[in-house]
Write a structure and sequence with these properties.
Order of helices and strands: EEEHEHEE
CATH class: Alpha Beta
Strand content: 25-35%
Strand order of the largest sheet: 1-2-3-6-4-5
Distance between the termini: 15 Å
Number of helices: 2
Helix content: 10-25%
Largest sheet: 6 strands, mixed
Amino acid sequence: MPKQVISTDKAPAAVGAYSQGIIANGFVFTAGQIPLIPGASDLREGGIAAQTRQVMNNITAVLEAAGSGMDKVVKTTVFLADINDFAEFNAVYAEFFPQDPPARTTVEAGGLPVGALIEVEAVALLE
């Protein structure tokens, strides 16, 4: 099965040599999403909670464009500009996975794109 590129205007457009998402072997792989507002080049304002919500909405849009959804996510990787934001991030993140949350890795990473406080990538089942 060849890979299939996913693109939606409900998530920020790719601004480099990458795709918003890829379908391959029954999985959807999202690009790392930062809290850009779809259709704009602005970061969501309001701190880590607002930025986390925007990121998760962006991931939701990419997964839905692929025919998947948040309930099918099996793994996420989270990059926080400041690990001290973990509790506030985690509270918002948990809203998107009310049951059976996926496996997750969370690390502090300096220098996220355009000054974002958070970046998240996800892997989800297609079916």
